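Subgroup meeting minutes
Present: P.N., E.W., G.H.
Scribe: E.W.

1. P.N. recapped why we're keeping a running log of single-chain structure predictions: easier to compare across weeks, and new members can see raw inputs and outputs side by side.
2. G.H. added today's entry (142 aa).
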Amino acid sequence: MADLSRDIRLAVDSGEVAIGAESVMHSIKNGTSKLVIVASAGKKELSEDIVHMAKLSDIKVEVFDGNSMDLGTVCGKPFSVSALSILSAGNSNILKADYSKAEAEKEEKEKEEEDESAASTEDNAAIDAEQESTPTPTDEES
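Output recorded in log:
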């Protein structure tokens, strides 16, 4: 299964990337960008502009599930990164992998776990209610 964070780090370390909104926009305009990644919790207007430019240029866009500080950390940088552009993948499979399917599977698994947890909580609540309604013998009744 594809891991976007791992592939981003590998691309940064072994390939060529443009980091930051201005550099990403420049790489899109020059046609050197092969893939654009934007942080999901970033400046909305800036992300929309980058996504729009990429789509006009037929460049695939991936949304990183995290804020710009998280994306910066994944890139190995001591600062926030709102967007990055993959110019050369290096040793990573970032240009070949389908992260939308992997993310959908991850979300589905999390939802199943939440449903199981909710069902368990409901069962426990039913048991507690049953125990409360069952009279217990007191010293006077014995």
